[in-house]
Amino acid sequence: MTGRAVGFISTRASIRDRGEQRWRFADVLCLLFSSGYGLPNAGPGMTPGQRLRLDDLLDTYGAWTPGLARAHHGMAAGADAEFHAAVTALGLPTFGHPGVHRDGRPEDRADGLVCTNVRPECFVDERNRAIARQTDVLFVASRIRRGGQYDSDMVAAISVALDFHKPIYVMWPDGTFSNDFSAWQASRQTFPPSFRP
């Protein structure tokens, strides 16, 4: 199968702050283009700015042309479901990648998603890395505002994309985006081993 594909991934982040553990739920979508578009995501869904940016990116990359792309997502409630609705409205076949957390809990799955194909269930972090490997461009829509700390699943997906020299765009909650990760790539050696793909 040739052409571009779209994917969505759900992640949750745990962040240590001032010596105590604090949980932050990151809404991270990553739209990956290639033989796949993809998205890391979780939580309540995209902001209006991110949704507009997603529509622009889908239009820019020609995803609206039937037969040119497939859509991959994590089948989670929130942004995955919004992404599914957007790409099915464009007529794209959808590939669901259901995830399970390391402790055995399934992700909060969206009700009523009918995918063209459902991939085998696997751990969320492994799924995110697999989607990043299969894409040519990575788009990440993050609930974390510009300058905030990324979560480990997001770091892993972006690291894989950098390893394969793929362009990356992070869509911020206000709809703006960043695409220069040269400083991040240069500093990746300082990440803990668990953050590496």
What is the CATH-assigned architecture? 3-Layer(aba) Sandwich
Compute the number of helices. Answer: 5
Which percent bin holds the helix content?
25-40%
Residues in β-strands, percent: 25-35%
Round the Cα radius of gyration to an integer and report it: 15 Å
Query: For the largest beta sheet, what order do the strands appear in spatially?
Result: 5-1-6-7-9
Distance between the termini: 26 Å
Element order: H for helix, E for strand: EEEEEHEHEEEEHEHEEH
Count of discrete structural domains: 1
Provide mean pLDDT, rounded.
67
CATH fold-level assignment: Rossmann fold
Assign the CATH class: Alpha Beta
Oligomer: single chain
Structure notes:
By secondary structure, the chain is an alpha/beta fold. The chain has a single domain (4-195), classed as Rossmann fold. It is built from 5 helices and 13 strands. It has a 5-stranded parallel sheet, with helices on both faces. It has a 4-stranded mixed sheet with strand order 4-11-12-13, with helices on both faces. Strands 2-3 form a two-stranded antiparallel sheet. Helix 3 packs parallel to helix 4. The model is unreliable at 9-37 and 190-197 (pLDDT under 50).
Keywords:
Rossmann fold; alpha/beta; 26% helix; 197 residues; 5-stranded parallel sheet; 4-stranded mixed sheet; globular
Topology:
Elements: E1 4-9, E2 13-17, E3 20-24, E4 28-34, E5 37-40, H1 48-60, E6 69-73, H2 79-89, E7 94-96, E8 99-100, E9 117-118, E10 122-123, H3 124-133, E11 135-142, H4 152-163, E12 168-171, E13 177-178, H5 182-187
Parallel strand pairs: 1-5, 1-6, 6-7, 7-9, 8-10, 11-12
Antiparallel strand pairs: 2-3, 4-11, 12-13
